[in-house]
What does this fold into?
Amino acid sequence: MKMFRALLARELRLSVRHGSDSLAALLFFVLAASLFPLAIGPAPETLGRIAPGIVWVCALLAALLPLDRLFGADLDDGSLDQILLSGLPAAGIAAAKACAHWVVTGLPLLLAAAPLAVMLRMPSEAIPVLLLALVPGTLLLSLLGTAGAAIVLGARRGGVLLPLLVLPLTTPVLIFGVAAADAASAGLSARTHLLLLTAILAGAVPLCPLAAGAALRGAAE
Amino acid sequence: MAEALLRAEGLAAFRGERLVLRDIDFSVPAGGALLLAGPNGSGKSTLLRLLAGLLRAAAGRMLWNGRDALADLAEHAGRVAYLGHQDAIKPGLSAAENLAFFARIGGGDVMAALAGLGLADLADLPARMLSAGQKRRLALARLALSPATLWLLDEPTLGLDAGSVEMLGEMLAAHRGRGGIVVAATHLPLPLPGATELRLKRAVVVVQ
It folds into this structure.
């Protein structure tokens, strides 16, 4: 646990030093979502109806941006070898990386989603549900993304491969996440969708780091 | 001959489809040193990565104190300090911050480790400002920080000036004095008195 915290602290410190990388995902999220009103017109009824979808898809794509360098930088400069030899199991390393990705990318996306939803004229009663669904949602994006980033590590054109691998895996997250907000807009209970999202999260928490850890060991060879 | 702490029996390894190491046997006692020599591509780095547990052996086994060393990778990682071709230094962090993570894991004093390699003045300088030789010394300072018994060095003198090689020599002697083992791959003479030499050839190995 001590090693896990040390690695997490190191990752967060590196993110602060390379602040522009961390900020890029957030700015992409805000910009991409802001393009929709310009493209489809500012009519509140249209915009409000598709707002959850816009927020979710943009969050999904924004979360992908930093994944390419999540392990890539460490592989290139030899740090990955040193981290693998730190005595932390490879799955623990992947879990720390996923945590760092969530704190640096997932959490800011979650916070920026609220003003974006207001801007997109989402019904005010649906906004808390959207944010509530984004909590397990962003965690899932970090976990699945970390697993994907570890798997394509060392592959040529890994940056192109990564979205092709991760995006299909995130479809259930997208479906239930948007369905939760839609249900709330229609005045229905979003409980089922939120529970299903949490169930997927419960499965991903142990499985994704294990898969990513095995992939990291493979990449180091 | 003292009891062998580290022993390799018939190790073999692939790089991709090519068998680069075959029938590697050696043993090193506590406080001993092993020099890996051989032409480029003879598998020196591969053998070091294999001993570190980063690479899986295709055949053979590696024994530590008579027991299979690679059975528990996390435990093995605790006794290994590895210095690869790359310095594994983050340019955005200062010299001291680069070592902080490893100090938290293994214990040890960052400033003492930096001072041991003449980097005390540069502790707060971002690592991107360091020269290639200074980066190498920083990577060596990480080694000095580690409580590991088995040091695996891949071309440790790469880019070092004569004074730094001397400091490295003192470091290695102190480590061996504590009963540590050094396994180093090199083309240049290393300050390792009394080291056994293992000469690797392309997939054919002769122990001298």
